[in-house]
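Hi support team,

I'm opening this ticket because the web form for multi-chain structure prediction keeps timing out on my end. I have pasted the exact lines I submitted so you can reproduce it. The total is 1038 residues across two entries, so I didn't expect it to be a heavy job. Is there a limit I'm missing, or should I split the entries? Thanks in advance, R.K.
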Amino acid sequence: MSEHPNLSKWTELAEKQMKGKSLETLDWTTPEGIKVKPLYTAEDLEDMESVNTLPGMEPYVRGPMATMYAGRPWTIRQYAGFSTAKESNAFYHKALAAGQKGLSVAFDLATHRGYDSDHPRVAGDIGKAGVAIDSVEDMKILFDGIPLDQMSVSMTMNGAVIPILAGYIVAAEEQGVKHEQLSGTIQNDILKEYLTRNTYIYPPEPSMRIISDIMSFCSSNMPRYNTISISGYHMMEAGANSVLQTAFTIADGIEYVKAALKSGMDIDTFAPRLSFFFGIGMNFFMDIAMLRAARFLWHRAMSGFNPKNPKSSMLRTHCQTSGWSLTEQDPYNNVIRTTMEALSAVLGGTQSLHTNSFDEAIGLPTDFSARIARNTQIIIQDESNITKVIDPLGGSYYLESLTSAIIDEAQKIIDEIEELGGMAKAIESGMPKMRIEESAARKQARIDQGLDVIVGVNKYQLANEKIDFEIREVPASVRDEQIARIKEIKSTRDQAAVDKALADLRTAAEGGGNLLEAALPAVRARATVGEISDAMEAVFGRFVATTRCISGAYSSEFVADTRAIDNIKNRTNAFFDKQGRRPRMLVTKMGQDGHDRGFKVVASAYADLGFDVDISPMFQTPAEAAKMAIENDVHVVGASSLAAGHKSLIPELINELKKIGGEDIIVVAGGVIPPMDYDFLYEAGVKAVFGPGTPIPDSADKTLRLLEEKYLS
Amino acid sequence: MLKSAEVYVDGVKNGNRLMLARTITLIESALPAHQELAREIVDRLLPETGKGVRLGITGVPGAGKSTFIESFGTMLTGLGHKVAVLAIDPSSSRSGGSILGDKTRMEKLAINPDAFIRPSPSGGTLGGVGRKTRETMLVCEAAGYDVVIIETVGVGQSETTVASMVDFFLVLMIAGAGDELQGIKKGVLEVADTIVINKADGDNIQRAEIARKEYETALHMLMPASPNWSPRVLTCSSTQSTGIDTIWNTVLDHRNKLTQCGEMAFKRKEQALEWMSFLLDEGLRAWFYNNPEIKKLLPTLKHDVENRNTSPTAAADLLLKILTQ
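Hello R.K., no limit was hit. The queue was backed up. Here is the completed structure from your submission:
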């Protein structure tokens, strides 16, 4: 095919409309570095490998199933869990009655990291960002009245994956359900934890073994169960653009396949049970194209392993709308954002979907906000007729071009990772993490300059923010309830049986037994999540992350208007002249909250603005953070909190600082902190609170002003 | 809001973490008033110093310095030592600010009550590193830390400065693929008392052993800095904590050998004298360049030299004569 006969005429017409400006000024370079033109034509699709294929057939660009939503729509699967098992169970029952089709369990951070609720390190985390599970007794309450032979259950668990999956299996056993009847998904994607979310327990090597053990156990005992959900979602939430998300996720998948093959499994016994999980943001067409490109790339990668079963190279995925794109400001706008993102996931051909609640930048979803989120999907499915046609955008000049561009760009990164020796080695080298952080810093800089618009944050801000809806809070009594139940279990169980089961598990960890199989007797004997984790930790050790931080990316992205950041830079210089050193700030993350994007971006940007920034290790207790603040002699501590621990952890930090003479150190807080908690924090001594979406120059300005008032006046 | 020297001196002597930290801030400060106070404090603490083992550790980025110190320091506190770590961070961005992330790699040591870790921004002035670090080291000794570790990145000139203020200088390496010296300056190897090949674990053990032999050969070609000590090459794994105790034993062995023959005392005296002449040089330069007449004349003379109206020798002579007038 040659150029459209009228294309030159169109160019002429367009340039006339642009009053002489060149057409190229309408080109847009996406955050992925892909050049997008204002118009695409049939010519763009020439020689494109990914075009003109059919759904349900390789390379699956148009969908893994032949009939897609025309046959059956995607599964509405809302991720939820909070406080106690009992509360979460009640929430699930309501959601199922209102049209939800599958369950998806969120665990609290203490559980993720393998700590029982009575562990002193996790006092601030119990029941906060998910449900607290300490033993199979909690698990039984969680699924009470939910027939596990019929309900597909997805569990977001990576660190404490052995005790939790074993707990689910034993809870099912005690419901009278057989292993082979269980269906659902366990996330079990440890590689991305080292990259972004940090809810790992053990070092990479034993963690990879755990995954192989689970794949092996499930392939012979739980054939309907997805043994892993290879997740790009958290990378996107950490700031990865769509090409990075695609490349790193596919590369993670390849690494898992290699690990399973190495452990002696046949590709077709486990590969059909691999599932994926992508995050969908506000770059509407880009993320539709991303899902199509990911299916193409997975098929290409898997073909290299010569599977016989076509399902082995078929990418099936769950999607979630972006939590990061939600704003605390003017929060009803989030309903619209989530709708857009849901549409993007659907047009991209997802197999199941979670839509976020509009209040998630502020707190945990309420029954009301959860209903709106669920109905967003039901309305798309039942009212819009979108489901009638398979891959309705297939053949679109623009979308197919984008799909192909993502395939090409992501493949380059996948090749780069292969050269490094695979994803595990790449992660060790720090490359993927640095790329994601650089992408995050650049995005933040674009937002802070208003180049990426976020309504309510950097455009059309409200003069007065008012929250006129209910916010769910987790009562402090959750921890006490959990501790009481642990005590009860420990006093009524057969301790000798527990000890023996745990000793056997340890032997399996040392030797070669299957860890999931070895954990089942321990769970049956009522060993706790913490005890089972500890038994393996005794052999494997606990992983300590290396925190690297990039510099320069934030300020180098500031091109349009540098006045705001120049102002800050001048003032940090002036501070140096008068105080003999730069303003020094400790950014810290306390509790088990591993979301480190915000804290990294802040550290990197503040250093670019002329601060000396100390970064604390992850998972600090308030006393540890205080010691570090004192030793490094900082002027200010910035505490980042994204998992609802702020009301206990931050006042405790202030208290600990006082105890060791650091009462003059200023404390500021940032992250997901609901506005109604601001006063509580101010009363506790916090000097400034920065909610989600606060532009960095604004928070830096305010922080610096606090320091100027204290030291320069 | 400056307190009197007394308060800082007492605080440091009592091992108060806060006062030690704030004294270091004064030492590092660019303000003359702070520096003057710092001098007074250091002077008054001097009798309390000198008792510690002073260790310098350097290595290329990625050699695992922080992780090594985490493992090494934790072992030392286990033996009953109090350990201070002074980490000089070169990661400053163009703005002058910097990211100080050492403690994220020293998670256990950072919360250890017997450890004090202080990361310092280099602020872009390599010469300044030495000055501040030396005094900081003394203050840590006065606060009761009997092992002081100074960590620098082995890519600049700062490590030779550091080597000239410590008892024992350790260069950390990893087995590389072919690039034996990994950009480390030969000068750095010349001042090494021991080279340690880190990350000797898993499938890397053999490569580490090969690298160890290579460095041993390389060291044979260099003249040892001390007649009483031949630098050694060891291997270790910071993550598995293997070989760490041998390194400490080597430090102690070095200490014993050099103490017995009197070289240790001599070395410290030499270092003090070197330090004094360094400060003199620095002071003279500052004095010279701050002289109002010099300040006035220098640009003109530079211009003249550039345009060949005056010879460099004559210009320098003229300027120096001003000082003696």
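A quick check on our side: The domain at 49-260 of chain B is CATH 3.40.50.300 (Rossmann fold). Let us know if the file doesn't open in your viewer.
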